[in-house]
Specification:
The protein has about 850 residues and is α/β, with parallel strands linked by helices. The protein contains 28 helices and 29 strands. Helix 1 crosses helix 6, helix 11 crosses helix 12 and helix 19 crosses helix 22. Keywords: Allosteric enzyme, Carbohydrate metabolism, Glycosyltransferase, Pyridoxal phosphate, Transferase.
Length: about 850
């Protein structure tokens, strides 16, 4: 008979072991070696503790074993030390508190919203890079003492578990997760009842959700769960699985995340005394509705809609993570309209006002669609991409929201992602660094480690990975229907002395999982080379609805099933955090070959680098920013050409083969008299010591604090109700008056010229007459924009020179502005003049998307050839 309900009966911890409960419930154990080792000592086999989590371990250990440990003085001493270390970690001042003590103006708290969080394999609430990044953000914030509150959803089926059919087709499984068996605790009201949030749905229905809390070091992570008795069956399934269901299902998930998430934060702060967030960070557009909930909150204080929008924008940061339009959620306007207004959420607020925040009302947009990223940008005064290149791509992608501005001036900056070293670096590497003076803050210690020790450790880690791969591969083949007698060959899969290349990530088409298969004969030659062979470990999941991605997986699997090469190339199903933590340290080279520039950042290569693995990658994402020949190899690309994708793939695959054959493999196998590949080891050393500090999540979070959170908190504090009204009124007045703002005349007091040329270092005086209509000079900024020009007179590498009022209005009501223009560059040179809105509370002059430029008939011509 099959049980209708499943639960765990936990033993009662003896008093001396009570601290184990607190250690198990704080996810710091997932990146703290001493805590993990303590729990592994509970289970002498070690396997159960290593593969699961302490909460499950404590639920499975026998009462007899606990009684034995309660008398073990050595274990109790270790327990006391680890518990004291956790308490010091939670209570002691860290970087953030040091900044406050030095007078820095920082937010009292930051709320960080994301649709997924990859904190640990024991809490499977992630699908890929976005969630892993969010988890690393929380952990680094905890290490730095940043008062962050994470907000997400609790998916009862997580993302999905992946297996393979006999013919290599991806199959999905959705095991039910019981929150009571996860490292979570329910958030409760003062009377002990579970805390709830409620959303209004059309037709008088409601969506209820309870709040679970995961403790990520110092950071609380709040997860909303709709599987509660108050909901009808349809509403109970809202949080059933990550990125599942149709449009309305996704919309309800995102309403619960954004609107319900803000309400959950308010409840948590009320119940615990945690500081109320001054800054709200929207990690991708999925959480964008949080802005609407905060508008609703402010409207309850008497602020009108426009003033509330200004107050919300001031304290909001929006991060976009994808340069792929298909990665952005877009909903039909009628679906949005049905869920808001008097019959849904935000009653009393006109639905049209809500729709205006997300509609694609710009050239090239689809005016009937509500775009979550567009709403995120319109409701955030500060926005960023996740690498320097991605920031540039995002500025072009969303330039329609700021008409009249070149893409370079679109107000989207970039903060390059980072990864949490204690989570991803093998303990053996930390141990080797520590023996030579390395600390969590010092990565340059690798410079003093002897070549022999580096190389021996690399081989040890490779050997550990080979063992792990064989275990997982055997399990995969048994799932595919193989009998044990068929699997003897697996003991010969991979070789701990062969150059090992790793490739593991999600499987959308732009990441090109199968580019390596473009010329199969050539790949076979590389795999089976008699003196310089390579071996490849591949893993990745395709989205359940992406059959094209599944076909790519099947193509790779079928190739790796070939008896001629199956000892040299393997595909491991069910890629996740636990597998990744074994792959990164054990690989020599990390391969990444996306279609440039569609990789926003690509943090898997960062994790590999921290483990001494060299990158072999297209210059995309973070690699475009920090590549140096000391750290690996850049795969040449043909992204600037007009060729079709098939031809492009052929060229780039050939470039990949040539790099491996002519540069990567020879360097790995080029051994000196001591038997060591000296040049390879030096690249490993430089990768760890020089590249390592750049790719750390601590660096990333500090940048967020200093460049985005702190300015957002100051803007939030500056915008009280009266100031928000004043700013909203000013923007409305400027927008109404802007059609009559114009550059009427430009004249130049030119330096001495010869044949239309001017001398380098000369000054050009400008006099400009501006029509401002109903505006005043204090409402605008007038600039000269100058730089090199091309054949079409387009200005590049522009410089901006402010022009000052030179008197009152003339008889025609125009205002005179004047100022100097320094001619500091040689070659073809040009300038123009523009008028921008100006207000002390604007984050950038492009914020309103308004600019007035001269017409071709304005002025006396502006082209100069500099000598």
């Amino acid at each position: 008979m099959k049980a209708i309900r499943r639960f765990t009966v936990r033993p009662v911890l003896p008093d001396p072991l009570q601290p184990l409960s607190g250690l198990a419930r704080n996810l710091r154990w997932s990146w703290h070696t001493e805590t993990r080792e303590l729990f592994q000592a509970i289970d002498p086999g070690g396997r159960r503790a290593a593969d699961s989590d302490p909460v499950r371990l404590l639920g499975a250990v026998s009462a007899g074993r606990l009684a034995e440990l309660a008398q073990d003085q050595q274990f109790l001493h270790r327990l006391a030390e680890v518990s004291a270390a956790l308490q010091e970690y939670l209570d002691g001042p860290r970087w953030y508190q040091e900044q406050l003590a030095q007078g820095a103006e920082l937010p009292a708290a930051v709320a960080y919203f994301s649709p997924e969080f990859g904190v640990t394999a024991a809490l499977p609430q992630y699908s890929g890079g976005l969630g892993i990044l969010a988890g690393d953000h929380l952990k680094a914030a905890s290490d730095l003492g940043v008062p962050l509150v994470g907000v997400g959803l609790l998916y009862r089926h997580g993302y999905f578990r992946q297996s393979l059919s006999r013919d290599g087709w991806q199959q999905e499984h959705y095991p039910l997760l019981d929150p009571n068996e996860l490292p979570l605790t329910p958030v409760r009201e003062a009377d002990g009842t579970p805390s709830r949030v409620v959303l209004a749905l059309p037709g008088g229905r409601s969506l209820h959700a309870c709040i679970w809390q995961a403790q990520v070091g110092r950071v609380p992570l709040l997860l909303l769960d709709s599987d509660v008795e108050e909901n009808a069956p349809g509403e109970r399934d809202v949080t059933d699985r990550l990125y599942g269901g149709g449009s309305e299902h996704r919309l309800l998930q995102e309403m619960l995340l954004g609107i319900g998430g803000v309400r959950a934060v308010r409840s948590y702060c009320r119940l615990t005394g945690h500081a109320a967030p001054e800054v709200f960070h929207t990690n991708e557009g999925h959480a964008g509705f949080l802005g609407l909930e905060r508008i609703r909150e402010l409207s309850g204080t008497g602020l009108d809609f426009d003033s509330s929008v200004e107050a919300v924008r001031a304290g909001t940061v929006f991060t976009t993570h994808t340069p792929v339009p298909a990665g952005i959620d877009r909903f039909d306007r009628e679906l949005i309209a049905r869920h808001f207004g008097d019959d849904g959420e935000l009653p009393g607020v006109g639905v049209e006002r809500i729709l205006q925040l997300g509609m694609e009302t710009y050239p090239g947009g689809e005016p009937t669609l509500f775009n979550m990223a567009v709403m995120g940008l319109r409701l955030a005064q500060r926005a960023n991409g996740v690498s320097t290149l991605h920031g540039a791509v995002s500025r072009k992608m969303f330039a329609g929201l700021w008409p009249g501005f070149d893409a370079a001036e679109v107000p989207i900056t970039s903060v390059t992602n980072g990864v949490h070293a204690p989570t991803w670096v093998a303990p053996e590497i930390f141990g080797l660094r520590a023996r030579y003076g390395g600390t969590p803050g010092r990565w340059d210690a690798a410079a003093g480690i002897p070549d022999r020790e580096i190389w021996d450790l690399r081989r040890t880690l490779r050997e550990q990975m080979v063992t792990e791969v064989r275990t997982r591969l055997a399990a995969s083949w048994r799932t595919r229907g193989a009998e044990p007698a068929e699997l003897g060959w697996i003991e010969g899969v991979l070789d701990p002395d062969v150059l090992t290349i790793g490739f593991a990530r999600r499987v959308p088409s732009y990441k090109r999982l199968t580019l390596m298969l473009r010329d199969r004969d050539r790949l076979m030659e590389l795999l089976l080379h008699p003196t310089r062979p390579i071996q490849i470990v591949v893993a990745g999941k395709a989205h359940p609805a992406d059959d094209s991605g599944k076909r790519l997986v099947q193509e790779l699997v079928r190739f790796s099933d070939d008896p001629r090469v199956r000892h040299r190339i393997v595909f491991l199903p069910d890629y996740g955090m636990a597998m990744a933590q074994k792959l990164y340290p054990g690989c020599d080279v990390w391969l990444n070959n996306p279609l440039r520039p569609l990789e926003a950042c690509g943090t898997s290569g960062m994790k590999a680098a921290l483990n001494g693995c060299l990158n072999l990658s297209v210059l995309d994402g973070w690699w475009d920013e920090w590549f140096e020949p000391d750290f690996g190899w850049a795969i040449p690309t043909a992204d600037g050409s007009a060729m079709d994708e098939d031809r492009r793939d052929e060229l780039e695959a050939n470039a990949l083969y040539e790099l491996i054959e002519e540069r990567v493999a020879p360097r790995f196998y080029d051994r000196g008299d001591d038997g060591l590949p000296g040049r390879w080891v030096e690249m490993v050393r430089r990768t760890v010591s020089t590249l390592g500090p750049k790719v750390l999540a601590g660096r990333m979070v500090r940048e967020y604090v200093e460049r985005l959170y702190a300015p957002a908190a100051l803007a939030h504090r500056s915008l009280d109700a009266a100031t928000a009204r004043e700013l909203a009124d000013w923007k409305a007045r400027v927008r109404a008056a802007w059609p009559r703002v114009a550059v009427d005349h430009v004249e130049a007091v030119a330096p001495s010229t010869v044949g239309g040329s001017a001398e380098l270092g000369a000054m050009l005086g400008l006099r400009v007459r501006i029509a401002l209509g109903a505006l005043e000079p204090d409402d605008v900024e007038v600039q000269a924009v100058a730089g090199r020009v091309d054949a079409a007179d387009s200005i590049s590498d522009a410089q901006f020179f402010p022009l000052k009022p030179g008197g009152g209005q003339d008889l025609d009501g125009r205002w005179l502005y004047e100022g100097p223009l320094a001619l500091d560059r040689t070659g073809p040179y040009g300038y123009t003049v523009r008028v921008l809105p100006a207000h002390p509370l604007l984050a950038t002059s492009a914020e309103l998307g308004l600019v007035a430029l001269p017409t071709e008939a304005t002025g006396d011509g502006a082209g100069l050839l500099m000598r």
